[in-house]
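INFO  loader      accepted 1 record
INFO  loader      residues=303
INFO  predictor   begin
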Amino acid sequence: PGEDAIELVRWIERKPPREGREGNLTLAAAPLDLSAVLRETILEKVPTVVLTSATLATRGDFRFVRGRLGIADAVARVEELIVPSPFDFATQALLVVPTDLPLPASDDDRRFNEATVRATEELARLTDGGLFVLFTSYRALTMAAERLRERDSDRAWPLFVHGEAPRALLVRRFVEAGRGILLGTTSFWEGVDVPGQPLRGLVIPKLPFKVPTEPVTAAGGNSFLQYMLPHAAIRLKQGFGRLVRTRGDHGAVLLLDGRVAKKSYGGYLVESLPPAPLLKGPWREVYPRLAAFYGVDAVRRAG
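INFO  predictor   done
INFO  writer      dumping tokens
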């Protein structure tokens, strides 16, 4: 390729058959660095460019997104602004991290999957449903859906599973039910707006780290601290953002991945989230306080 060519990573992806669809092979390509394209097509041609989003900053600054987009003061005059949220996260939200659950080992980790199912059921007893459960893999989602149905949880609360119907239809049915449990993967972490009572809590089983063997991640030689951690922080903030959409919303985010409390990078992730109170500790200790947050009797009902 010439000097001006965009460096691409190319790969072949095999998609197995599911839901009556035949499997297929996909040839894919993605650019490793878009900064030159952005400079040539936008930054150097448009007098003023405004980049705005609820999730551009990590840990209170824009260094990660500026590096990814190739935005530097040498290219253009850059002004930054973080606007405080209009929501009162101190009273509207609660971040809960149980510290005595098994740590996730893989997407088909049955011990962690069982812990996810039981925690989801116990939160649903406090909220009477109204939950999103956001997974990082479709395999973990299907395992949880199967187990919830085996335990007849879908009889207590309507269960909506990503992949069993179009996203818009699942969300509409979830809202209409008013007390459902929706299991979603990647596309449900962002761009889904369910304000008010239909959504009263989130369960995030696993931190949304990119898989190191993903083609773009592997080819880019991106380090954990410089790429994977900031990316996970933005993704986690996107997931958290599904919960509080108006000043009247109220709910807890139950983050089951104990690494956020036990690893040195946990502080980076928490500090990148909206300023909701953090409650962490063994499940038997955090559960009564979680119940109090929802105004429910703190006596635990065994699941």
